[in-house]
Amino acid sequence: MPAVTPAPRLTTPFGYETRAAEVLEGVDLSGRRAVVTGGGSGIGIETARALAGAGAAVTLAVRRTDDGEKVAREIRSDTGNEDVAVAHLELTDRASIDALAAAWDGPLDILGHFALALALHDALAAAGDARIVSVSSAGHLRSPVIFDDLNYSFRDYDPFGAYGQSKTANVLFAVEATRRWADDGISANALMPGGISTPLQRHVVAADPDYMKKALERFERLGRKLKTPEQGAATSVLLAASPLLEGVGGRYFEDCNEAPVVDKRPEMGAGGVARYAVDPANAERLWDVSQVLIA
User: Fold this and answer.
1) How many CB atoms lie within 10 A of CB 243?
2) CA 238 to CA 133: how far, in whole Å?
3) How far apart are the first and last CA of the chain?
4) Using an 8 Å Cβ cutoff, are 29 and 56 in contact?
5) 205, pLDDT greater than 90
6) Tell me, what's the pLDDT at 211?
7) Which CATH number is 20-200+228-294 given?
8) Helix or strand or coil: residue 186?
9) Is 252 a catalytic residue?
10) Which one is catalytic: 163, 211, 252, 276?
11) What pLDDT digit, counting tens, does each position of 111-146 carry?
12) pLDDT tens digits, residue range 181-201?
């Protein structure tokens, strides 16, 4: 059997400092519908703002609807797009996921998250060319998915290792969703937003007050700086709506370009996607395990 030549890495005109709005400059998303999970804070706000600014109908799926309504008003005012809605969603609560899916009517073009994607599969398929965006992290380089001990029943719990495992799962979800649903017109890709100061860091700083100082030092050694939320949302927006990604799925992006596959963890901030995170066999196995876990 002849060797299979891997597809070339996808590159774009955008990069590290690109802002979300720049990615969609000249792109018309009128008639497209998007659900942005975590759209009430951090890069979720800027992702929603860029999509709405290009004309998409955007639903902010958030835990705190009061905060979400405030953000929605700001986005409507900033973009002139009145079609920005808010829906309650708690991703750790299956009933909340099912409620959002049951209330959804019509096609859905842009989405993220495993259980929610399963629940909204028919709406995604109805769109004809839907995209799923799975927000991962360079943190995935800290750990593959340990299938024999997903929940640290035998290993000593390691917060960063657990985070890394979850972020690897985000990439594997995109790989398998594309394989299973490509015939339904659904593609999925994963991404690393970049080093950004967002509300997420409050949990790390509580345990390690010097965390952000050390992170800044690592970035300075690489000749980089932390991204703004607008820059951090750029890669999400690229995967969600750029014509450059038409027909592309099952890949991992950073700084608005597809990342190289690596076989050894580089220095944090140097980039790359671990081979285990894009391995088709791992992706299929995780999908089956995930279905059992949420059953």
Assistant:
1) 8
2) 10
3) 39
4) yes
5) no
6) 65
7) 3.40.50.720
8) strand
9) no
10) 163
11) 988 999 999 999 999 999 999 999 999 999 999 999
12) 999 999 999 999 988 766 555
